[in-house]
Amino acid sequence: MSLPKIPKVTVIVLTFNSSKYLDGCFGTLEKINAEGLEVKVMVVDNGSSDGTPDEIRRRWPSFEVVDTGSNLGYASGNNVGIRLAIERGADYVYLLNHDTEVGPDFLVEAVRVAESDPQVGSVQSLLLLHPDRELVNSTGNAIHFLGFGYCQDYRRSVDRIDVETVREIPYASGAAVLCRLAALKQVGDFDERFFMYHEDLDLGWRLRLAGYRNVLAPKSVVWHKYEFSRSIGKWYYMERNRYLVLFKNLRLRTLIVLAPCLVLAEAGMAVPAAFGGWWGKKVRALTYFLRPSVWSYIIRERERVAAWRKVSDREIFSLFTPTVRDQEKASLFAEWVVNPLFEVTWKVVRPFIR
């Protein structure tokens, strides 16, 4: 009689000038419960200049440090670790932000959920805020039907959410997620063209298209020192990558159905973009799609997705939302005008999604 296989898990922490976070992240990581697991911790450093790699080697010598030599961004940096884990025969990777602190059972609880169903492709931990440790950062991330991604239940009290039930989510936040490597071998790892923003949304979408599930494991707890970025520069990547996700992963019929909605949304975003100072970033994101090389890439990606797609757009859209809520910079205009318009539009277009 063969003994049960011990799951092999590589925890990947991507660092970049992370010295102020080391005590919290690695100080809690070194104390976790790893019973029943074969765990390795891999630090992928994206060209830190503050001595982060050397300090980790000195203080946590059992953790492997991989130097990339430059800032590759979130997608490429994590892919370095993912590909090494695959080469070494790992079953799972757990991607953990450097600005986090972990609960002692965060990993065993996430793996327990993944092991319960081979169709689970990703498992997000319950992300709470730090230092507001009783408030939610994310209970899984939502996807708006026009491609916007955002945290669910942001800043809600943990007492007001279900912390017992494992449940399906649209996609897992890249800040604290366990990924099944057998699934990533099928759908691919992060799209390195994204550099930052929405790469986790794209991966979660692809997992769903291949028939895998993204779920929340609420007993796996991670605290995130989350800071809402007010940088204008982020808008280029957010808007460009939102369209990349849509163009890569939606069927042509669905894109045609959504086209009028996308045009209207662009018109609606013109005023806040102009007053918010990011109109230039918005224009740059749209003109990115005037390059023939970009469409060659999109066509290749669409063909790759079509080769293993098992799920219809209609089924994918069953997890989407028509509104954007509970965000850092919510406005009355968004709540009382934009969201109601989105809800009406959603009711009109959803029956045509196949």
TrEMBL record:
<keyword id="KW-0328">Glycosyltransferase</keyword>
<dbReference type="Pfam" id="PF13641">
    <property type="entry name" value="Glyco_tranf_2_3"/>
</dbReference>
<dbReference type="InterPro" id="IPR029044">
    <property type="entry name" value="Nucleotide-diphossugar_trans"/>
</dbReference>
<keyword id="KW-0812">Transmembrane</keyword>
<protein>
    <recommendedName>
        <fullName>Glycosyltransferase 2-like domain-containing protein</fullName>
    </recommendedName>
</protein>
<keyword id="KW-1133">Transmembrane helix</keyword>
<keyword id="KW-0808">Transferase</keyword>
<feature type="transmembrane region" description="Helical">
    <location>
        <begin position="255"/>
        <end position="279"/>
    </location>
</feature>
<keyword id="KW-0472">Membrane</keyword>
<dbReference type="GO" id="GO:0016757">
    <property type="term" value="F:glycosyltransferase activity"/>
</dbReference>
<comment type="similarity">
    <text>Belongs to the glycosyltransferase 2 family.</text>
</comment>
